[in-house]
Design brief:
six-stranded mixed sheet; 511 residues; 16 helices; Aldehyde Dehydrogenase, Chain A, domain 2; binds nicotinamide-adenine-dinucleotide; alpha/beta; 25 strands; Aldehyde Dehydrogenase, Chain A, domain 1
Length: 511
């Protein structure tokens, strides 16, 4: 146990910030409840410093060759791969998720880096020779400038890696504002970027809260903002950022339904429900939080889910065998626990009470075991609210059509899944469900990095999804060039070259 907690500060212009913080916060180890670090919180002036460093660096980086950019990206990929263990430990120490889960987060982040390594291919434009006589038309995609990334606590490495590699590969400079709850992975990424040869100032990190976020949203030099977090803040970020003239993609919260038809393989389905409901203590935007059991499957399915829940090993993510860690803060744990009483008061059946689950960890940790509610109905707060904890609800419905109507009536539309042995039902589901990411017998359908990630409805504000092809589109703007060159060389046809003195006020036509 450390007696003097470390200080974590911003990363600006290729090195740790050396100023004196006017505002600070605390970072905790969720598995022990101990304060592990003091975190500098950025003022507007500190954000301005980071933006100035980014803007100065961008002037050079925007003209770095594609060969140079992909060399840096490949080097970053190697460093990230070689430092998997270290970054995993940093995640677990501040977020609380178990080491194996943190390793999965890093693996998915690596995939996003690998996609960005292909930037020379991804930035190819189009070329039309002789669009008009002797006139060529071609398009190029150019970087935006300085872009902001604002990320949530639940994926402190992966979400920054969804955005920063594409943004940098496209020739932008980045100011990242990670969650104040688990800031260390962002700083470690900054060190790796520097070691990979990225010029100073192209990747910056400012820590803090709403003060930093608001300055990023208002700053006139910042051209675009990628945000991931809860729906109320995503809506706010989108409104304020776009009002300031920025391009904004704001990914929000979720309430993901898993529809189970009576012909599903119930052992496979129960495995999936428990894995996707309680992995990372339910603190995933793609966690399953509602099982929609189509009659008459509920009783048999619930029995199998309960069997599996009873055997889950809950505790400090650094201890061997632990499958689920604590919640991120004491306040969040208390909020999640409050839903257990609310659900009972509203008439749901508390089938498994996570407060009784054994814990392999320190008493001061922010624990709550896996919890199951049965007979949940759509008006109850356990159904309407994003709980973001290890609480799984079962809603019983009479038919497939009722299941689809329930999912489509929900304001969130991040992920969903159907479990069935019927290909026709699965195909109908993927066609009519109003959700951005759909799994067929796959409970957490996070797209691979060469597709893009995004929900519908209140789960995403803006029209670009994250990473993949949408990411390249988001971090660049299109320029189309229409070009005609005088043909003066001896022996070259002069067809289509206007003769001098040929003034024509008509609108240019192609012929
Ligand atoms: P959050 O909305 O509380 O915070 C996200 C970011 O916004 C953080 O950097 C935080 O410092 C900042 N922030 C918080 N309050 C703010 C305010 N009032 N004004 C300005 N900025 C503010 O989210 P969280 O608790 O860190 O993360 C969990 C949420 O993120 C869940 O709702 C989860 O579903 C969502 N999430 C969504 C996705 C997705 O891809 N759709 C992915 C991961 C997490």
């Amino acid at each position: 146990m450390s007696t003097s907690p470390a200080r974590i500060t911003h990363w600006i212009g290729g090195k740790p910030w050396d100023g004196v913080a006017e505002r600070t916060g605390s970072v905790y180890d969720p598995a022990t409840g101990e304060r592990s670090a003091t975190l500098d919180f950025a003022t507007e002036t500190v954000v301005d410093e980071a933006v100035a460093a980014a803007n100065a660096a961008w002037q050079g980086w925007r003209n770095a060759s594609l060969a140079k950019r992909s060399t840096v990206l490949f080097a970053f990929r190697e460093l990230l791969n070689n430092n998997r263990r270290r970054i995993t430990e940093l995640i677990t120490a501040e977020h609380g998720k178990v080491l194996s889960d943190a390793a999965g987060e890093v693996a998915r982040g690596l995939e996003a880096v690998e996609f960005a390594c292909g930037i020379p291919q991804l930035l190819k434009g189009g070329f039309s020779e002789n669009a008009s006589t002797s006139v060529d038309v071609y398009s190029i995609r150019q970087p935006l400038g300085v872009v902001g990334i604002i990320s949530p606590f639940n994926f402190p490495a992966m979400v920054p890696l969804w955005f920063a590699p594409n943004a940098i590969a496209c020739g932008n400079a980045v100011v990242l504002k990670p969650s104040e709850k688990d800031p260390s992975p962002a700083n470690f990424l900054a060190e790796l970027w520097a070691e990979a040869g990225l010029p100073d100032g192209v990747f910056n990190v400012v820590h803090g809260d709403k003060v930093a976020v608001d300055r990023i949203l208002d700053h006139p030099t910042i051209r675009a903002v990628s945000f991931v977090g809860s729906t109320p803040i995503a809506r706010y970020v989108y409104g304020r950022g776009t009002a300031a003239g920025k391009r904004v993609q704001a990914l929000g919260g979720a309430k993901n339904h898993m529809v189970v038809l009576p012909d599903a393989d119930l052992d496979v389905t129960a495995d999936a429900a428990v894995s996707a409901g309680f992995g990372s203590a339910g603190e995933r935007c793609m966690a399953i939080s509602v099982v929609v059991a189509v009659d008459p499957v509920a009783d048999e399915l619930i029995a199998r889910i309960k069997e599996r829940m009873a055997t889950l090993h809950i505790g400090d993510g650094r201890r061997p065998g632990c499958e689920m860690g604590p919640l991120v803060t004491a306040a969040h744990r208390d909020r999640v626990v409050s839903y257990l009483d609310a659900g009972v008061a509203e008439g749901a059946t508390l089938a498994v009470d996570g407060r009784g689950h054994p814990v392999d960890g320190e008493a001061g940790g922010y624990w709550l075991g896996p919890t199951l509610f049965d007979n949940v109905t759509p008006e109850m707060s356990v159904y309407t609210d994003e709980i973001f904890g290890p609480v799984l609800s079962v809603v019983r419905v009479p038919s497939y059509a009722d299941a689809v109507n329930l999912v489509n009536a929900n304001p969130y539309g991040n992920g969903t899944a159907i479990f069935t042995g019927d290909g026709g039902a699965a195909r109908a589901f993927q066609n009519e469900i109003e959700v951005g990411m759909v799994g067929v017998n796959v409970p957490i359908p996070v797209p691979v990095s060469y597709y893009s990630f995004g929900g519908w409805k209140d789960s995403l504000f803006g029209d670009s999804h994250a990473y993949g092809p949408d990411g390249i589109h988001f971090f660049t703007r299109n320029k189309v060039i229409t070009s005609r060159w005088p043909e003066r060389a001896v022996g070259v046809s002069t067809q289509g070259t206007p003769a001098p003195g040929n003034v024509n006020l008509g609108f240019p036509r192609n012929d």
